[in-house]
Design goal:
With about 290 residues, this protein is an alpha/beta fold. It has two domains: about 100 residues, Winged helix-like DNA-binding domain superfamily/Winged helix DNA-binding domain (Arc Repressor Mutant, subunit A, Orthogonal Bundle); about 200 residues, 3-Layer(aba) Sandwich (D-Maltodextrin-Binding Protein, domain 2), CATH 3.40.190. Helix content is about 40%, strand content about 20%. It contains ten helices and eleven strands. Strands 3, 4, 5, 6, 9, 10 and 11 form a seven-stranded mixed β-sheet that branches. It has a two-stranded antiparallel sheet with strand order 1-2. Helix 1 packs across helix 3 and helix 1 packs across helix 4. The longest helix has 25 residues. It starts with 5 loop residues before the first helix and ends with a helix.
Length: about 290
């Protein structure tokens, strides 16, 4: 098989992003026929159909989705290579300065309460780094999926026995956060209130803990995110079991009750690709995340 050139990868990524050959051509400043020719050439080299063509545009096939993930990651490595080479001073690689865009995917509570501390220190020490943060729901493939698909350099993810680091990635735990009972302040019988929950709340490990608590009823209300849950609890609508990161800045109308030594916990960590794990910007971010979590 003949290797694909970087420009061929850029065409594939553009078609996947724009969901059409015409739109990709406009984005790339090419003709539609040139884009089509490039995609057909890539498909011949790879031995697979990458896009289903139709009146509504071009939709990646299963093989195409896999190819696009690899294409994004390869192109990102080329960008990192350029940024790091340009950042090497006369003193040599040991004095290289991290610079360039740094793409981060994080779930909501981590983006609001863990990431800002780390990014503040990171950009102060390395002003050449330009963080780009996307909030991603930590359900399904979550933030790890964004890294696998080449859309993020690092993801802040929930880790554990039921959601381990994917085998294609590397990562580590930043902090262990416990869960607490959250209820309206001053309520005489908070455990009698309806239970409010949200999809991202916890892993199946924590769900198993919930199942063993006779005082916890099934959730009767499901909110969009932890912020909505906290707001509903603060107005007296119900109670919730929430992790520590979600409780930063809880209003005085909310009371937080410790669930004791047997409380469930959640591991919050980071994931990245083996290639990017050694890049200057990602290494610098991991250092600051560990400091912020500590």
């Amino acid at each position: 098989m003949t290797d694909l050139a970087p420009q061929e990868l850029r065409v594939l990524v553009a078609v996947g992003r724009e969901r059409g050959f015409s739109a990709a051509a406009v984005a790339l400043g090419m003709t539609q026929s040139a884009v089509s020719h490039s995609v057909r050439g890539s498909e011949r080299k790879l031995g697979a159909v990458l896009f289903d063509r139709g009146r509504t545009g071009a939709t990646p096939t299963a093989a195409g989705e896999r190819a696009l993930a690899h294409a994004r990651r390869v192109l990102r490595l080329l960008d990192v290579m350029g940024a790091e080479v340009r950042g090497v001073p006369a003193g040599g690689p040991a004095d290289a300065v991290p610079a360039g865009p740094l793409r981060i995917a994080a779930f909501r509570s981590a983006a609001l309460h863990l990431l800002p501390r780390a990014l503040g220190r990171l950009t102060e020490r390395h002003p050449g780094i330009a963080p780009e943060v996307r909030i991603v729901r930590e359900v399904g493939r979550g933030t790890a999926g964004e890294v696998l698909d080449g859309r993020a350099d690092l993801g802040i993810a929930t880790l554990g026995t039921t959601s381990p680091v994917p085998p294609e990635l590397v990562g580590g735990v930043l902090l262990e956060e416990g869960y607490a009972l959250v209820h309206p302040a001053g309520h005489r019988s908070p455990r009698s209130l309806p239970l409010i929950d949200w999809t991202e709340n916890c892993t199946s490990y924590t769900r198993d803990w919930w199942a063993g608590q006779e005082w916890l009823p099934p959730a009767t209300v499901e909110a969009e995110d932890d912020g909505a849950v906290l707001s509903m609890v603060s107005t007296g609508f119900g109670m919730a079991v929430m992790p520590e990161l979600s409780l930063f800045g809880a209003p005085p109308s909310v009371e937080i009750t410790d669930l004791g030594p047997a409380r469930p916990t959640r591991s919050v960590g980071y994931v990245t690709t083996p290639e990017l794990a050694s890049s200057l910007a990602v290494r610098a971010l991991i250092r600051e995340l560990r400091a912020a979590a500590g």
